[in-house]
Amino acid sequence: MPPPPRTARRSRTPSRCRWTTTARNIMTDQPTEVLLPEAEVAARVEKLAGEIAPRIDDDTVVICLLTGGLWFCADLTRALARAGRHVRFDALWLASYGDERASLGRCEVRADLQRPLSGRRALIVDDVIDTGLSLSEAARLVRDSGAAEVLTCVFAAKPWPTPRAIEPDFVAWQAPPRFLVGYGMDAAGQLRGLPYVGAMD
Fold it and tell me: What pTM, to 2 d.p., does this model score?
């Protein structure tokens, strides 16, 4: 009786990965072109903090729009502290995309503000703006909560063919019309944690 065929064994040698100008989403195997490297992201945040600091005070409430705004907001508030502005913090969770690539055309409030805003200046922070729907709704909610002044700030502003619902007061980067991922921006919930901004189209 012939011996059973031998099955091929996988090599135990670990593969080595090197980050260059492209990366890969291991689940979809789509190439991700790096548009803004990590060092440039940091430089743009630092520069933007320098522009914002003279417009606010330590009583200002920075409102992070969840979930995408977390990464930018954390870096921005640290940069503001280095610029001498020790702001208050709150968060607002709005959903207009879910896991889709296109906006659903409506905003759902999943978690409301916790800190009193009456008579205070507010700075709303988000990762990216395209239609402006989420940022506009956030500004309305913050005004309705009694804020004396509402400023808005995004890391990336994508071009849009029609007038937006709102134009942000501060923008770190004028982005190309691409499907962006990384630094808070996601593809179906993935890739938010990339330290750079990439494109998946």
Answer: 0.80
Identify the three-state secondary structure at position 179.
Answer: coil
pLDDT of residue 162: 87
Q: Which residue among the candidates 75, 90, 130, 186 is catalytic per the annotation?
A: 130
126 given a catalytic annotation: no
Which residue shows structure tokens 């909560």?
145
Find residue 108's DSSP bridge partners. 95
Distance CA 56, CA 119 (A): 13
Cite the beta strand spans of the chain per DSSP E. Answer: 22-24, 31-36, 61-66, 88-95, 108-111, 121-129, 149-157, 170-174, 180-181, 197-199
- In this prediction, residue 112 carries a pLDDT of 73
Phi, psi (degrees; rounded to nearest 5) at 84: 90, 15
pLDDT at 113: 87
Cα separation, 153 vs 60, whole angstroms: 14
Blockwise average pLDDT, block size 10, the chain, 201 residues: 48 34 47 89 98 97 95 98 97 71 61 86 96 93 96 96 92 96 93 94 84
**Can you give the pLDDT at residue 30?**
54
Report the chain's C-alpha Rg in angstroms. Answer: 21
Give 84-117 as a 3 state SS string.
Answer: CCCCEEEEEEEECCCCCCCCCCCCEEEECCCCCC
- Contact by Cβ (8 Å): 115, 90: yes
